[in-house]
Design a protein that fits this description.
single chain, 115 residues, mainly alpha
Length: 115
């Protein structure tokens, strides 16, 4: 009895492994559908993040200068404006994706790039 493996059996096993790997590679595991709640949470987080960052920056400046609450109010308002602008940008992005669809977006980009 030989200790060397049979090359034909190894080739057959490798072919089976490659076939199974090929099936998994064809199916991407990316979720393409997002619920409206996920989009709403994204927008809420963008707004709250802008407010929070503005508040922290304003409070930090006021604490260093001893001018509480002048910069806190100013930077909180600026953070609010930045959060709203980010929400509007996200809403426009979602609307463009929903109205045109992904294939239409690709065609539109090709038209703009001369492709």
């Amino acid at each position: 009895m030989s200790d060397a493996p049979d090359p034909k059996r190894l080739d057959a096993l490798q072919a089976k492994i490659d076939a199974l790997k090929g099936k998994d590679a064809d199916v991407p595991k990316v979720e393409e559908h997002y619920s409206q709640a996920q989009h709403a949470w994204r927008m809420v987080i963008e707004l709250v993040s802008g407010l929070g960052i503005g508040f922290v920056i304003g409070y930090g400046i006021d604490w260093m200068l001893g001018t509480l609450p002048i910069f806190l109010v100013i930077f909180t308002m600026l953070g609010f404006v930045a959060g709203v602008k980010t929400m509007i940008r996200t809403a426009n992005e979602l609307q463009k994706g929903n109205v045109l669809g992904p294939k239409a977006l690709d065609k539109e980009e090709d038209a703009h790039h001369g492709g």
